[in-house]
Amino acid sequence: MNLEVTIRRFNPEIDDAAHDELYHIDAEPMERVLDVLNRLKWESDGTLTYRKSCAHGVCGSDAMLINGENRLACVTLVKDLKSTKIKIEPMPGSPVIKDLVVDQSAFWRKYEAVMPYLVNNDPPPETERYQSADDQFLIEESTKCILCGACTQSCPSSWGDDEYLGPAALLKAYRFIFDSRDQAGADRLNIIDNNKGLWKCYTIFNCVQACPKEIDVTKHISALKRKVVSERY
Amino acid sequence: MARFNHDIVIVGAGLAGLRAAVEAADQCDVAVISKLHPLRSHSGAAQGGICAALGNEEEDYPLWHAFDTVKGSDYLGDQDAIEVMCNDAPRAIQEMEHYGVPFSRTKDGKIAQRPFGGHTRNYGEAAVRRACYAADRTGHVCLHTLYEQCIKRKVRFYSEFQMLDICETDGVVCGIVAYEIRTGDIHIFNSKAVMFATGGYGRAYKTTSNAHANTGDGLAIALRHHIPLEDMEFVQFHPTGLYRLGILVTEGARGEGGVLRNASGDRFMERYAPTVKDLAPRDMISRFMYQEISEGRGAGPKKDYINLDLTHLSLKQIESKLPEISTFAKIYLGVDPSKNPIPVQPTCHYAMGGVPTNVDGRVVIDEKNTVMPGFWAAGEVACVSVHGANRLGTNSLLDLVVFGRRAGKDMVQFVKETKGKMPIQSDADKYVKEKLSAVLARNTGEPVGKIREELQQTMMDNVSVFRTEETLSRACLEIKKLRERAKNTVVNDKGKEFNTDLLDALELDHMIDYSQTLIESAYNRKESRGAHAREDFKTRDDQNWLKHSLCWMDESGHTQIGYKEVNMKLSQENAKFVPKERKY
Ligand SMILES: Cc1cc2nc3c(=O)[nH]c(=O)nc-3n(C[C@H](O)[C@H](O)[C@H](O)COP(=O)(O)OP(=O)(O)OC[C@H]3O[C@@H](n4cnc5c(N)ncnc54)[C@H](O)[C@@H]3O)c2cc1C
Ligand code: SF4
Ligand code: FES
Q1: Which domains are delineated in chain A?
Q2: What sign does the CA torsion over A101, A103, A104, A107 have?
Q3: B415-473: per-residue pLDDT in tens?
Q4: Does the beta-carbon distance from A53 to B144 stay under 8 Å?
Q5: Which end of chain A has fewer beta carbons closer than 10 Å to its terminal beta carbon, N or C?
Q6: From the CA of A108, how many Å to the nearest CA of chain B?
Q7: Is the ipTM of this complex over 0.95?
Q8: In terms of Cα–Cα distance, which of B270, B160, B139, B159 is closest to B210?
């Protein structure tokens, strides 16, 4: 099928503002949007710039706005878009570096802010630390996150407030707070129990909609809210 | 240009690089350089597991694991290194658990384990449950956990910095030259120790499970510094890549009970490997799949694939143990594995060969294992060699954490013992600067993508699962032509900021360099061993070829081959480890 692909372009060395560029290209329905971008770059316009690596939805490099939704270009097939017109833009809510590449430094700073590591100050046992399958299950969904940013960068609360931790960082906080092996839950709750954290989430569900790993992010944030309310208020 | 000073510079932020960083962080000033954000590294794509003889699900011992690894390697693995790895495995996995890896669990809360190809109980009796896993996202959770530990230890990361060269002063490696992708600036890092953890090179092949970033940069840069590459002819093709795409379906799918079937539904592995069947090692299964296909028993309209059948597994098992691969099959092939078999084909997966090192990760540069001062390597870029001619599944992640840690420890020791840093020579970045300006200056020529595609096709057609003198000589000729053509590539993007067009051109040069060593080593080895199957020399020849290949390359692209003894230390002590015909 013949596709009309409109790509939002911005070259910081030349452009004052972003502009749209239209490309025509033949594509198979089963091709990934990433394949289409690659062919455009490799066969016709080498200046087209985006991040990529794994090409099958596990590394989190290529989240971008595709026909109005934040998606990974490598797990979005041409046929999924149900249209021969494709519009590709950088994810909203972050400064654009070039074309589809956005500056994610704020996203990573927020991730680091929630103490994203297991804290257990007891000397480690000779064996593994035991964890029941049920306790493991409690955090399993949250460990699927590939930190692509699609959720945080589709969240109106995040767009409206640069300081809001955002869904991805809150999900990471959940992953450790609910890990039966962790001992720093209270510290993390201190970090997120405020209006730059949990209470900035108005359950708009954009994050759930955006997540390519089908993580119910809002469910996890709600569990954190319930935990805070039952333990602290 | 800026100059950065650190005690240790680690290039690569997959499991190997991060594990080394965790080890050294508390004691030295460590920097990790990575062309991708660390969490984008391809270690995160590993699915099936990481193995250790924990014995959580059934009786198991490190010596059994070592035996399987030696046999799996077709006796080319160095037995001293294999012993180190298998003995350290239980400790290494428990440590990963203590760091926070959310492993799947047994009923009593221990790390769960499942069977994997080539891993057996009691020297080949039957498959054993040795692979520790987190569903089919084992690499993902291990990568995230080690990165988290680095954040905790405040390791300094230089993300989206691409190493283009190493700095060498009087034969000592004392730093690297790196390109900051965001700005296009070239920087020099001066350090006492440099470690390569740059991963694999599967992108040299058309069909691969590897990421776009897996362009083997470290290998080509080592070659440029007159360091040989070891055992490059051994490239693993994983039996189960998604048809035409190469995206991996973990061997864990067969570990959970999946079976391979030909067009008539026949479970052909029962014929070829009666004891372990679908859990035979990868080199063998890939060959048998091609045999089925070439004898007309392939599935599909073109009779060119094999079916991986999971339909007899319970939905719960698929959803809890194999959710990712089941999603991949649904998305990319439109196949629901609980209802229909998954069309699969062998896919280029893993590099057994690489930069030669000793068991402490020190790079060794000749037949006598002479150490190159200041230089370490670990992970898929390195060849220590625990995998010999064929790696067993789940042994790579283990290799990364065991030898990543050992390299980290050894570097710390070295940094403590070494008084100042070797100075960087004033022209250390000359080569890189000249190369970049030459590429940018050309306004006419061939596109990089076209040459890369031809390279990938050449490698796929001539240097994949089966090889002959004819295919290899063809590849030798082709690669020389490609090398000439690559001197005249043209890039559209002439800018400084985020110029991935330019980086593609530099990576292509790397791909050509190491691919040539691969082809020439394969041409040279006149026997079949592990993943190197020569149709014109069908059997293993221990008399003449029980030795590692080393391949050097000079500036003009001429190669030279040498050999290194295989360490058979264990086999002298244990009759079980003496080379025999591999049967499963
Ligand atoms: C799909 C798939 C599934 C797998 N499953 C398993 C499994 O279940 N069990 C198992 O044991 N093994 C598995 N393997 C193999 C294993 O995952 C890899 O061998 C291993 O992850 C390689 O790790 P690494 O640390 O050496 O390199 P990688 O994780 O590939 O990391 C390489 C790093 O180097 C950086 N880098 C590269 N070049 C440069 C440069 N020029 N400058 C700066 N930085 C650079 C990259 O940015 C990256 O950070 C699998 C492999 C694949 C492809
Ligand atoms: S929760 Fe989903 S959308 Fe958000 S960062 Fe993680 S994987 Fe991406
Ligand atoms: S390229 Fe890795 S998630 Fe798309």
Answers
A1: 2-102 (3.10.20.30), 105-232 (1.10.1060.10)
A2: negative
A3: 999 999 999 999 999 999 999 999 999 999 999 999 999 999 999 999 999 999 999 99
A4: no
A5: C
A6: 10
A7: yes
A8: B139
